[in-house]
Amino acid sequence: RWIHNIRLFKEFVRPILTTCQVFHHTPIQRHTETGDWCVLEHAAADGSRAYAGIFRYPGAVDDTYHLRPKGLSVARRYRVTYDNTGQTRDMDGGDILDRGLTVRVPGAFQSELLLFEAITG
After folding, report:
1. Residue pLDDT tens, the chain, 121 long
2. Cβ(80)–Cβ(116) under 8 Å?
3. CA nearest to 9, candidates 88, 120, 115
4. Using CA atoms, how far apart are residues 51 and 26, in angstroms rounded to an integer?
5. Rounded Cα distance, 96 and 41, in Å
6. Is 13 helix (H, G, I), strand (E, B) or coil?
7. N or C: which terminal CB in the chain sees fewer CB atoms within 10 Å?
8. Does the predicted TM-score (pTM) go above 0.90?
9. DSSP bridge pairs for 3
10. Are 56 and 110 within 8 A, CB to CB?
11. How far from the centroid of its chain's Cα atoms is residue 76's Cα?
12. Are 37 and 54 in contact (CB under 8 A)?
């Protein structure tokens, strides 16, 4: 898994890290509160790729989070990868932006990393 994570950083994250847009989907959590979710999205300025970390805190009542990414393009199709399982699906950018994705994170202090990579446009 270490090799996977290093490759993911070098090939997917690092190329956009210095110029990407950062979207905070949840409010800042106070360290004295249990909180529910922390969700951050980093998106390439040209909409070619993005990644979103969905982190579940102990205060989350439900095990799903509805993510509506902000840094994608309606004119593109994306390959969406769920990093925990490696499962992928191809989706229309407009559908992702309009409807979003429901992401399951089964327990507190667990997370999911979604990768979005343009396959058209």
Report:
1. 899 999 999 999 999 999 999 999 998 877 787 789 999 999 999 999 999 999 999 999 999 999 999 999 999 999 999 999 999 999 999 999 999 999 999 999 999 999 999 998 7
2. yes
3. 115
4. 15
5. 14
6. helix
7. N
8. yes
9. none
10. yes
11. 17
12. yes
Tokens describing residue 21: 């847009």
Rounded Cα distance, 39 and 110, in Å: 12
Structural element, H or E, at residue 88: strand 87-92
> Which residue do the tokens 């393009």 mark?
73
The residue type at 11: E
Which one, of 42, 34, 37, 40, lies nearest residue 16 by Cα? 42
> Is 63:105 a contact under the CB 8 Å cutoff?
yes
